[in-house]
Amino acid sequence: LAKTTQPISMDSYEGQEVNITCSHNNIATNDYITWYQQFPSQGPRFIIQGYKTKVTNEVASLFIPADRKSSTLSLPRVSLSDTAVYYCLVAPNDYKLSFGAGTTVTVRA
Amino acid sequence: DGGITQSPKYLFRKEGQNVTLSCEQNLNHDAMYWYRQDPGQGLRLIYYSQIVNDFQKGDIAEGYSVSREKKESFPLTVTSAQKNPTAFYLCASSPRQGGEQYFGPGTRLTVT
Q1: Which of A64, A86, B81, B112 is the most buried (most CB within 10 A)?
Q2: In B, which residues are within 8 Å of A98 by CB distance?
Q3: Which of A92, A71, A91 is nearest to A5 (CA)?
Q4: Do the chains contact at A96 and B92, CB–CB below 8 Å?
Q5: Do the Cβ atoms of B92 and A42 come within 8 Å?
Q6: How does pLDDT run across B20-62, given as a tens digit for each residue?
């Protein structure tokens, strides 16, 4: 599995855009990039998945440059309820996922 | 409502006892997983099952056992051989290979 590196923590304020960058220099051709969100004492929740370029859904956008060695999760206009841990996962489209420590995002009023 | 249920939410056991954690899903998913999470850490895969009557070890299977006799159920037994069983245990399922994983609410196990 490709190793991922993401910041340990990020602070933001309500209404701002939060961008979390994940580095994955050893990403393989058949790897997908997936992001999950986890609140304390709850299971993670799928946010978005992409392979290349840009993917957008009602919650977030995922930007992947042409070399795919990094990706950026963009959360538009965050609110206090977006305070959570965000995990970047890089893996082939199979059953096994590896969750690192993630990025703790704290949104302040 | 479709979803994954785990019970109980909190579980307390004495050292040396085996304990079984329940995981049930009514999403008709083929694949199911068990993860362990320690404070401030990410999730680590214990076991996973792609189909009924089949399962594979994950990264930290020692001291754990599972069964998959029904599509809907994937119970995890924490045996006395597990050195540090106190943790937050999460069950998940996915409909297809590489698909989004849906997680249950978790069981917090404390062994003293």
Answers
A1: A86
A2: 42, 45, 59
A3: A71
A4: no
A5: no
A6: 999 999 999 999 999 999 988 889 999 999 999 999 999 899 9
